[in-house]
């Protein structure tokens, strides 16, 4: 049975709930999902600016948490693991939206739309997400560290713990990723 005792801030203890949910406690899982929903929505909203896209990604992320919680071993903090799962879900939603957009005929698109600055797939930060896709295809080991640091704003130590790599490697990957991404980003005046 789930220990639903809040921590001193009045919030449920996510770490305890995650451990209980990972062990198969359904009540803990339900409580955990309810507690993390606003956080998941905020994380997705940082990457997918259009609310409907962020909501879709958030729902997918919550479903992933529910189905993958058994694999959460507690090597890192639950919230760090959650950021990684949610970031990956948002990027996956972006890829799906981009694919759907490409399948539409050009007649459906606004005549003066610049696809680099005007989102035809519902307001996403196209330049950053496209750059992450390019980097992911050539340097997949760099993308996750960059997203966790620059988009999700996790601490370097949390990223090292989550990815199970040394702190110096995290900093190096983020530095390399920034160098690769920088020329791919569109600079607006």
Automatic annotation (TrEMBL):
Protein known as: RNA polymerase sigma factor
UniProt keyword annotations, A-Z: DNA-binding, Sigma factor, Transcription, Transcription regulation
Domain spans labelled RNA polymerase sigma-70 region: 34-99
NCBIfam families, sorted: sigma70-ECF
Keyword Electron transport belongs to the record: no
Location of the RNA polymerase sigma factor 70 region 4 type domain: 144-179
Gene3D superfamilies for the chain: 1.10.1740.10, Winged helix-like DNA-binding domain superfamily/Winged helix DNA-binding domain
Entries under CDD domains matching the protein: Sigma70_r4
Span list, region Disordered: 1-22
Pfam family, one: Sigma70_r2
Family: Belongs to the sigma-70 factor family. ECF subfamily.
InterPro entries (UniProt xref): RNA_pol_sigma-70-like, RNA_pol_sigma-70_dom, RNA_pol_sigma70_r2, RNA_pol_sigma70_r4_t2, RNA_pol_sigma_r2, RNA_pol_sigma_r3/r4-like, WH-like_DNA-bd_sf
Highest taxon, organism lineage: Bacteria
């Amino acid at each position: 049975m789930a220990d639903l005792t809040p921590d001193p801030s009045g919030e449920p203890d996510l770490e305890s709930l995650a451990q209980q949910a990972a062990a198969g406690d359904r009540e803990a899982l339900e409580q955990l999902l309810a507690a993390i929903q606003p956080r998941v929505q905020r994380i997705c909203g940082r990457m997918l600016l259009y609310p409907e896209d962020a909501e879709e990604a958030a729902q997918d992320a919550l479903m992933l948490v529910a189905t993958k919680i058994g694999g959460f071993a507690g090597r890192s903090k639950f919230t760090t693991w959650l950021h990684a799962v949610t970031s990956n879900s948002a990027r996956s939603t972006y890829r799906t939206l981009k694919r759907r957009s490409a399948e539409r005929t050009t007649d459906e698109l606004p005549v003066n739309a610049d696809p680099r600055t005007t989102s035809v797939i519902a307001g996403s930060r196209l330049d950053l997400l496209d750059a992450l896709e390019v980097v992911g295809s050539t340097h997949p080991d760099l993308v996750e560290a960059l997203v966790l640091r620059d988009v999700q704003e996790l601490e370097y130590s949390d990223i090292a713990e989550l990815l199970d790599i040394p702190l110096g490697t995290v900093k190096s990957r983020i530095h390399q990723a920034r160098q690769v991404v920088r020329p791919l980003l569109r600079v607006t005046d």
